[in-house]
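Homework help board

Subject: predicted structure for assignment chain

Our instructor gave us this sequence and asked us to write out the predicted structure in token form, then describe one feature. I got the tokens but I'm not sure how to describe them. Can anyone check?
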Amino acid sequence: MEKILIKDLIAKASEKLKKAEVTDYVIDSRLLAEYVFHIDYYKLLVHPDMETDVKNAQIYNQLIEKRAAHIPLQHLTGNQEFMGINFKVNENVLIPRQDTEILVEEVIKYINSQERKVKVLDMCTGSGCIAISIDKLCDNAQVVGADISKKALEIAEINNKENSAGVDFIESDLFENIKECFDVIVSNPPYIESEKIEKLMPEVRDFEPRIALDGTKDGLEFYRNICNNLSRYLKEQGAVFFEIGYNQGRSVSKILNEQGFEKVKIIKDYSQNDRVVFALR
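My token output:
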């Protein structure tokens, strides 16, 4: 019987993904191998003659076919790490991204500077990655996550349970079902301009929920709607944190200024793009 070497499967897979114009074709072929064969890739480098059986080789090749069709890697594995925590993801939630860790880090720094219990609302929670990360990494946070999507909240509840977190999730069209006031409101809302959706990479455009991407005509509608309600749902001296698009810092700051916020700060990501807007009421 012919030997099936894992390294040979990875090499062929990498070429297939390259031809399909998958951006991270080398990395993705390796990560799917780790997922299917339950190996550490560095172990494979040390032991290059590791073999597999026909069944697992077929499973791997089937996943490579799907990845070549630009189905996101995270949808194939069902997981994405964020803030050092593992989150379940599927087609009903936005895949957590490293840029959003900037937002969470800023919120955590603020909460940990407070010497009291801090009530936090994560608006447009999706997979729950922001809310659960805050809950896990802040001892003094009481966290609520809200989203309009029932299917997204089902994933958030799974992540809440599997990570032993204590977030309360609420199905709500923005503030429709919110009854409390909060010390912190954080949100990574849909902020891509509608006409730009079709220009996104196929992994995003075709497989992630449009409801989590589309910020309407100018990309700012959700910021306006949330800010219009801050006087009712954010306590005096409370803090608001938004993730923003790279070119939205001034626009979102202006929306906050119009609502009476004076101390507005724009925070950049590791690529020196505007990424977070922070303001104190």
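Reply (TA_rk): Your tokens look well-formed. For the description, you could write something like this. The chain has a mean pLDDT of 95. That's the kind of observation they're looking for.
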